[in-house]
Amino acid sequence: MTAIAPTPVETTAGSDEIAPAGRRRTGSRWWLHVVLTLGLIAMLTPFAWMILGSFKTDAEIRRHPTEFLPREPTLDNFTTLFGRLDFTTFFINSIVVAVFVTVGNIVFCSMVGYALAKLQFRGKKLLFALVLGTLMVPGVVTFVPLFVLTANLGLVNSYPGLILPFLITPLGVFLMRQFMLGLPDELIEAARIDGASEWRIFLRVIMPLCGPAIATLTILTFLASWNNFLWPLVVATTEDMYTLPVALALYSVGQNAARYGLMMAGAVVVVVPVLIVFVVLQRHFVQGIALTGIK
Amino acid sequence: MTITAWLFALPFVVLFLVFMAGPIVGSLLMSFTDMTTRDLQTPFQVNIVGIDNYVRLFQDPRFLRSLLNTFTFVIVAVPLTMVLALAVALALDKGIRRFRTVYRVGFYTPVVTSIVAIAIVWRFILQPDGLLNGFLGLFGIQGPDWLQSTTWALPSLIAMAVWRNIGTLMVIFLAALQGVPREHHEAAMVDGANAWQRFWNITLPAMRPALLFAAVITGIGFLQFFEEPFVMTRGGPLDSTLSAAMYTFQQFGFGNYAYASAASYVLFLAIVVLALIQFRLLGRKED
C-alpha cells in the first residue's frame, strides 16, 4: 500500500489560545455564529433525537406533528434491552474485547515503537516500511482469509478470535514511535552508562515519559474496538458472543426492525458512554489526530 | 543490539505476520482458487482456477453496479466533505473567538460514535413518517420515502457519510491552518490582496499537504462504506445502495470464499489506485 507517512499536521491543534486575536472584531462576524450554530444543530439533532426517542413509546416517536420531548417518558425500552434481550452480555463482551485490545496495543506498540524510535538495528527500515505500508489496509481485504485462519485455529465465536487480530495496529506503532522520537536521547545514554539494560530503560525511563501518547493510544484503540463492526460480525456466530454494534445491527434488520424506541435505546447504550468520555477527554482526541494525522 | 531490538519488535512481528501480512497475501492467493465454505477445514486442497473469479466478477451486473455505487459515493462525498470541513475550519480559525471549543466538539461528535448506532438513528429520521419529513412538512414539502427510493437512497447515505466525517477533516484543516505563516498574509494585505485572493494564493497552497492527506483518508474510508447500507437499506432498493464492501460480505455469507476474496482484491486495487491518483493530482505543484 501507499505509505501515508509524513503527517502534515505537527502542530498541536485545539490551541484556542494561539488563535490570531486582537485585530479582529468579533461583533462583525455575527453571521458566522449563525451559520456555525445552524451547522451545530444539524450535527447534534440526531443525537438529541436518539436520546429523547429512547424514552418514548413507538407511537409517540411516530406522532404527527413531530414532538421532541417525550410526553410520558418511559424506561420500558431499556428494561426490554437488558431484560428480555441480552444487552448485558453484549455490553460485557464489548468491554472485555476493548480492554484486551487496548492493553495489547499499549504494550506491543510501545515496545516496537521504542525499537523504531531509539534503537539502531539491521532491518529497521524494512520494519518501519511494513508498518507504514499497512497503515491503511482495509479490513474488507483481509477478513475472508482471516476467517479461514481463525476457523482452523478453532477460534471462531470466541474471545481470542475477536481480540487477537487487533492486538496490534500499525497506527498505534506509528503514534508511539512519533512520540518517542521526541524524547531526548541523553536520558537513554545516561541510563546506559549507568549500566541499565534496554528493557530497564524502556520500562523505567521511556514508558513513564509516554503518558500523553499512551493516553491518546488508549482512547483511540478503545474507541476503535468499541465501534468495530465488520470483524465481530463475521466471527461472532452466536448471540452470546455478539458485541454491542453487532447485536444492534442484527436486531435492527431483524424482527425488531420497526421498534423505533427499542432501537434508539440500543443506540444510546452504544453511543452515550463514548459521548461522555469524548466530552471529558476531548483534548486528547484532538492531540491524537495532531500526532498521527489520522483519527 | 540487533537481537534486543528484534525482541522488542517480536510480538508485533508475529501478530503482524499472522493476522495482517498473512491474510493480505492469503486473500490474493485465495482469489485464484475455487475455495468455498466446504474447504474450510482443508484450505490447501482447493483447485487453482486462475483468473476465473475475476472474469466472473466483471460479468456480474450486481458487482458492476456495486462498483458504480461505490465510485459515485466517493466522487460525490469526498469533495463535499472536504469543502464543508474547510469552510467550518476557516470559520473557526479566522472568524470567531468565542465558543470555539463548543463548535469543535459539536462538529467532531459524529466521528467518535458507532456508525451502526448512528445509521439506525438516521434510518428512523429518514422514514416516510420520520423527523426529516416532519421538518419538511413545516414548509409544506412532502418528502419522499428516502431510503426506499432508487433516486434518493444513495444520496441519503452520502449525506449521512458527509455529516459523519466533517469533524475529522475539520480538525486536520484547523491544525494545518495554524501552520500557515501569518507574515505571508500580512505581506499580501499590504499589497492590497483581498480576503478571497489571500485564500486562493496563500492559504490554499500552504494547505496542500493537509488537503492531500484528507482526500486520501476520506477516499479510502468511503471506498469501504459498509455499515450504512447494511443497517439502513440492506443494499436496496434494487441494489441502488449496494457497495463493493457489502457485495464482498454477501458473497462471503453465501460461502463463496474465493469469489469474495477476488471482489475484495478489486476493491483493494481501487483503493491503491485512488491513493496514487490523489497523490499525483494534489502533490503536483511541489515547486
What does this structure look like?
The complex is a heterodimer of chains A (295) and B (287). By secondary structure, chain A is mainly α. Chain A has a single domain (81-292), classed as MetI-like fold (Orthogonal Bundle), CATH 1.10.3720.10. Chain A has 15 helices and no strands. Chain A has helices at 30-53, 58-62, 76-82, 87-118, 124-133, 139-152, 159-163, 170-181, 185-193, 198-206, 211-227, 230-235, 244-252, 260-280, 282-292. Chain B has 287 residues and is an all-alpha fold. Chain B has a single domain (61-282), classed as MetI-like fold. Chain B is built from 13 helices and no strands. The longest helix of chain B is centred in the N-terminal third of the chain and has 35 residues, at 61-95. The two termini of chain B are 41 Å apart. The model of chain B has no long low-confidence stretch (mean pLDDT 87). Classes of the chains: A mainly alpha (295), B mainly alpha (287).
Give the quaternary arrangement of the chains.
Answer: heterodimer
Order of helices and strands of chain B: HHHHHHHHHHHHH
Radius of gyration of chain B: 23 Å
In CATH, the architecture of chain B is Orthogonal Bundle
CATH topology description of chain B: MetI-like fold
User: What is the share of helical residues of chain B?
Assistant: over 70%
Mean pLDDT of chain B comes to 87
Flag low-confidence runs of chain A: 1-27
Cα separation of the termini of chain A = 19 Å
CATH fold field value of chain A: MetI-like fold
CATH superfamily of chain A: MetI-like
